[in-house]
Amino acid sequence: ASSLLSRHRTFKVLMIGDSGVGKTCLTHRLCAGQFPCRAEATIGVDFRERTVEIDGEKIKLQLWDTAGQERFRKSMVQHYYRNVHAVLFIYDVTCPECRQNSLGQDIPRFLVGNKSDLRVPTRADHQVNQQTAISFAKSHGMMFFETSAKIPPNRLSKIEDIVLTVAGKL
Ligand code: GDP
Ligand code: MG
């Protein structure tokens, strides 16, 4: 009977970002998957799930890994964005030309710089400055993380921090 009482809410979380920034790998990683992820490009949309416990409540995160939305009809894109509870905007820290997206002003949003393992101190000018990203996130009401889908989950990768913070905001 106690299992009937335990609540189990599911939340849809969108992974958004340019092709190649690591959305698919990070989605696998956040759902306790392995790196490298399967090599094939994501077709359309795919989701993976991860359950976490927050204050004794089990919360299921449904991470929607999107790809090539720009090639789909508008109605299809709107379908992805329907009933979304949070958005993770992923960019590649080694690629300063990130595009912006104003999606989801009224739900928790997170700015996530991926591929931190590729940071080279001597090539700082070719990378996205972390302070700049933090300021950008702050001024847009987003929470900020820098991570790597490639290194094993640990304190540096912040993978568990991301999962728990997202779940805690839902
Ligand atoms: P997506 O198009 O945004 O889904 O990007 P993918 O997840 O397919 O990753 C694109 C490429 O970046 C692949 O070659 C991955 O192996 C690589 N990649 C993804 N995340 C990381 C990371 O954190 N560090 C490094 N070094 N490579 C990564
Ligand atoms: Mg992908």
From TrEMBL:
Keywords: GTP-binding, Nucleotide-binding. GO terms for molecular function: GTP binding; GTPase activity. It comes from the Eukaryota. Belongs to the small GTPase superfamily. Rab family. This is Ras-related protein Rab-33B. It comes from Neogobius melanostomus (round goby).
